[in-house]
Amino acid sequence: MIIFLVDRSFFERDDSVKEPIKYHIHIRLLRKGDDFKTAFGPGTACLLKGIERTGSINQATKDMGMAYSKAWKVLRVAEEQLGFPLIERNVPSGSSLTEQGRKFLAMYDQMQEAANQAVQEVLEKSDF
Q1: What is the percent of the chain where pLDDT is above 70?
Q2: Residue 108: how many other CB atoms lie within 10 Å
C-alpha cells in the first residue's frame, strides 16, 4: 500500500487542521468479466516487477511473502481477464515478462502515477 502525505505547510492557512490528509489509490484493470477483486491491480503489478527483477516466479513470491500457488492463480486469472499472456515460462532458466506484459505493466504504472498526481493537485487546490 502506498500512502501519500500532503506537505504540512499546505495547512498553514487553517490552524484547526493538525494532520495532513492521507490517501492511497488502487487502480484495477480487467477486460473480461466484472470481478474487480481479482482484477489486475497493485498486487499483480508487484508480482510482475518481482519476476522481472529476479527472473523467477518462485523468488518473486518469496520476496513478497506470497504462496507460490497463489502467484500462479493470480497470474492465470489476470491473463484470462486481460486476454494475453503476461509472463513467459522458460524452463529451466526461469520466467520473464512478455513484451505485452512489460508494456501493460508500464501503462499501469503510468496510470497509477497520473491518478496520484491528480489527487495531489486537487488536494493542493482545496481548503483541506
Answers
A1: 86
A2: 19
